[in-house]
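Lab notebook page, bench 4
Experiment: in silico fold of construct C2
Operator: M.H.
Input chain length: 121 residues
Purpose: comparison with the prior construct
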Amino acid sequence: MFTRKKIFDEVGPWDEDFFVYGEDVDLCWRVKKARWRIVYIPEVKVLHYKGVSVGIRRETQDITKASLETKKRMIAETTQAMLKFYGKHYRGKLYTPVVLTGIKVLSLFRSLRMRLGHFDE
């Protein structure tokens, strides 16, 4: 992700209340709300081994060094990030309780899949 300093000056820096996940979603939300454009450039190539550092992606299980405890924590952190995002940006909306419940249910399914030896796909 690349951005101008002027954007950070206007919308504020990364929200450090997000631990591992969600800070990019939060920043982009604030950028769009401030009426800046977010542009995707398909010609730019970046190699990113998604999930290696936290070890929760099936396709990177052979190269991750993350422990089972780290994997469990990352499921919890993902859930907390999304709960935090919706609480921050959608507080008071009629549908917010439904979305928050959905996030929690998804977290339970992810935890169950991990206990059964399956990882995110």
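Observations: DSSP finds four helices and no strands in the chain. The helical segments are 5-11, 23-33, 68-89, 96-115.
Next step: discuss at group meeting.
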